[in-house]
Design a protein that fits this description.
CATH class of the largest domain: Mainly Beta
Strand content: 35-45%
Strand order of the largest sheet: 42-41-44-39-51-47-48
Number of helices: 2
CATH superfamily of the largest domain: Regulator of chromosome condensation 1/beta-lactamase-inhibitor protein II
Distance between the termini: 121 Å
Radius of gyration: 44 Å
CATH topology of the largest domain: Methylamine Dehydrogenase, Chain H
Oligomer: single chain
Mean pLDDT: 85
Helix content: under 10%
Structural class: mainly beta
Number of domains: 4
């Protein structure tokens, strides 16, 4: 029983994972941004009543950005009106006169406007719309509660504002579309229903008969998306199967059924389950994309919509492969034309080009193969089909790149106090399109400043602390022409505010900043930054790069150091001897190592002076970095390093000395540091590795003399009073002893 249960659980788990994977593959196209982030809206094609949302009725032959906010998440297009939803859940409509039922303005005050609505205008006051679909005169929308509403023209739904359908909540809806007075809607649990104008006799219901109330279509519970055309319906399931039903006059079902034989029940298109997207035009040409990026078409051959030949081996009524690309990821249909995106965001169109609906820069004729509209920088799969025009959510400009960030690195030795410094960078206009004489065309970039302090990003590695901050070099810079703009960027020396005993080794780096500006042309008419490159002309130490090196590191690196002279010296190593009967001329040996910081020369040396107890100079000494020196000192002598960089390393060990117990008073950067004293004589005393701090640095070694006389008493450890008392007691005992001996004789 355990084995059976384990197997069943494993199989169920695998099926669930497969279901989720295919659901993502079918519903959420890879590389398409989350719809909630919002996109600019572009429109093109016919525009007799303002359906493009451009504020006029002029035709556009290329994609043109709709003015206003760029936070659209859903768009759809009907026969006369266009509709959209933004990130706030607001629903908008435009494209016909105010009292046209399809515009949905019935809830507005009487006669809210005159003429046509040529710009996006809000429908109602709700803020919870999630989906909208339109076909012909009919509009369907769903809100975040899963409630379905419809409005528009026709015998079935002749309303001038959103009305809930059915009149009472029948189910929680996830997806819906309309078709000639019919509604097809999918519930959140994957069931498909259809309903509409009663008495219609058509195979398009997907089930026998017609009804004004929702009736279930088929037995599937995995429906994902529905696309409707003139008189055919395509249904895609989450497990990758594609179904069709409706009329079949020209083979638009894409099935083995004999053309002209309608079918009112869903039947599979092909036998595979690797379909990702499917769409059908209003004149019954169908197209679908597979999960491996291949494009298939069937149905109407008018206007080159199949983008492939009709041959005996691949007849028009069966899916036939469109040769060429294998990276298709999204498909949308309209009136006799298709739009599709590839995985690299390139938009293609084919079919009827009347009124410039393909967006390729000219009007009329047709294209019988996918034709590039332009490369984009992202798009949304939330575009629904329409008429003789096109709507698309996409970006035509690249995102701001990290290369625009000018970065400042300030390196300093570990132990250095973090400063508060400001650095200034200048931008010299260099050339326009490679011509220095045209540098006047360049916008003036003001000096940029970067402040580094304790709030900056900090890293620490190999004895070096690095403070990091950055500034947007092109912030608030606008361009009014296309071309290649070039500036020379330098750091200005001497303006950081560092004062002695600090010093800054300013960067001598120079960079050429090149900005490539393009124009959207008909696409909104804006100038935008297409690319930014940075070329290093000179390194931080002033070395010329010939030719200049293209780099991703737009970084100026400075070195910051702080020196200290302390109180009587940057570092003082002193000798002090205490204890009675100590020989103050005793020589004590010290092993001394001084280590350079990362920013000193490899063979750095350190000058020191040795002073006597009376302050007179004894001798000069030189220490090589990392080299141990043994220095003898007597009582009162000291080694003085006059000046050192904060962060310089040092290690001092006093060698063992007979009859002396060692201790030390250590101060680093003006702060006492505890070092355990020796508890016994004749032991060495090491400090361990230390770093020179900002302020006084000293190590005073104190040696206590321990002398043992023949009496066995350690006199140096007895106070004078106790010593005298002991001597007096011995004298008294001696005198008493003599008297006793004299008394015995007598």
């Amino acid at each position: 029983m355990k084995i059976t249960y384990s197997i069943m659980r494993t199989v169920a788990h695998s099926v669930l994972l497969l279901f989720l994977a295919i659901t993502v593959a079918v519903v959420a196209v890879p590389a398409i941004a989350d719809a909630t982030e919002g996109f600019p809206l572009y429109s093109w094609g016919s525009n007799p009543s303002g359906q493009l949302g451009q504020g006029d009725t002029s035709q556009r032959n290329v994609p043109t950005r709709v003015p206003g906010p760029e936070n659209w998440v859903q768009v759809a297009q009907g026969a006369e009106g266009s509709f959209g939803i933004n990130t706030y859940g607001h629903l908008y409509g435009w494209g016909s006169h105010w009292n046209n039922n399809q515009m949905g303005q019935g809830s507005n005050p009487a006669n809210p406007g005159t003429g046509n609505i040529t710009s996006p205008t809000r429908i109602g006051t709700e803020s919870n719309w999630t989906q909208v679909s339109a076909r012909n005169q009919h509009v369907v929308a769903i809100n975040s509660n899963g409630e379905l509403f419809s409005w528009g023209g026709g015998a079935f739904d002749n309303n001038n504002g959103p009305i809930q359908r059915p009149l009472t909540q029948f189910a929680t809806w996830r997806d819906a579309t309309s078709m000639q007075n019919r509604i097809f809607a999918i519930t959140v649990d994957g069931h498909l229903y259809s309903w509409g104008q009663s008495g219609l006799s058509s195979a398009q219901w997907g089930r026998p008969g017609s009804s004004g109330t929702p009736l279930r279509v088929g037995g599937n519970t995995t429906w994902a998306r529905i696309s409707t055309g003139g008189d055919v319906v395509l249904g895609l399931t989450t497990d990758g199967y594609l179904y069709s039903w409706g009329a079949n006059t020209i083979g638009q079902l894409g099935r083995e059924d004999t053309p002209a034989s309608p079918n009112n029940l869903p039947g599979r298109v092909g036998t595979t389950n690797n379909w990702r997207f499917a769409a059908v035009t209003t004149n019954n040409a169908a197209a679908a994309i597979t999960t491996d990026g291949r494009l298939y078409t069937w149905g109407s051959t008018e206007n080159g919509q199949l983008a492939r030949p009709d041959t005996p081996s691949t007849p028009a009524h069966l899916p036939g492969l469109v040769e060429g690309r294998t990276n298709w990821v999204f498909l949308a249909s309209a009136n006799a034309h298709f739009l599709a995106f590839t995985a690299d965001y390139r938009l293609y169109a084919w079919g009827n080009n009347g009124s410039g609906r393909l967006g390729i820069g000219e009007a009329g004729g047709f294209r019988d193969e996918p034709t590039l509209v332009f490369p984009a920088y992202g798009f949304s799969a939330a575009a629904r089909g329409g008429g003789t025009r096109s709507l698309m959510l996409m970006r035509t400009t690249p995102p701001i790149q990290e290369e625009l960030k000018l970065t400042k690195h300030l390196e300093m030795p570990v132990g250095t106090p973090i400063p508060d410094l400001t650095f200034t960078f200048t931008f010299e206009r260099n050339s326009f399109n490679g011509n220095p004489a045209d540098s006047g065309y360049l916008p003036v970039i003001p000096d940029r400043e970067i402040q580094l302090n304790s709030s900056s990003t900090t890293t620490s590695e190999d004895g070096v602390i690095t403070l990091i901050d950055m500034v947007d070099a092109l912030e608030d810079i606008n361009f009014n022409r296309t071309g290649v703009f070039s500036w020379i960027v330098r750091e200005e020396a001497g303006t950081s505010g560092a004062v002695a005993p600090s010093s800054v080794n300013y960067s001598e780096a120079e960079f050429e900043l090149r900005v490539y500006v393009r124009h959207e042309g008909g696409v909104g008419g804006d100038f935008y930054i297409d690319a930014v490159t940075v070329h290093r002309i000179q390194t931080d130490d002033g070395t010329l790069e010939d030719p200049p090196e293209k780099t991703n590191d737009f970084i100026f690196t400075n070195i910051y150091t702080r020196t200290t002279t302390g109180d009587g010296g940057a570092l003082v190593i002193a000798k002090d001897v205490v204890g009675r009967y100590a020989n103050l001329a005793t020589v004590f040996n010290f092993d001394v190592i001084v280590t350079r910081t990362t920013f000193c020369e490899l063979n750095a040396t350190f000058a020191a002076r040795i002073y006597n107890a009376d302050g007179s100079l004894n001798r000069n000494e030189t220490f090589e970095t990392g080299v141990l020196r043994t220095i003898p000192l007597t009582h009162g002598q000291r080694i003085v390093f006059p000046e050192l960089i904060v962060g310089t390393g040092f290690n001092v060990t006093e060698q063992e000395s007979l009859d002396f117990t060692a201790s030390v008073n250590l101060i680093i950067g003006g702060t006492p540091v505890t070092v355990a004293a020796n508890t016994s004589p004749n032991l060495s005393l090491p400090l361990g590795p230390r770093l020179v701090g900002d302020g006084a640095n000293s190590a005073t070694f104190i040696n206590t003399h321990n002398h043992v006389p023949p009496t066995g008493l350690i006199m140096d450890n007895l106070p004078a009073v106790i010593f005298a008392a002991v001597v007096l007691a011995l004298v008294v005992l001696l005198m008493v002893s003599k008297r006793q001996r004299g008394a015995i004789r007598t």
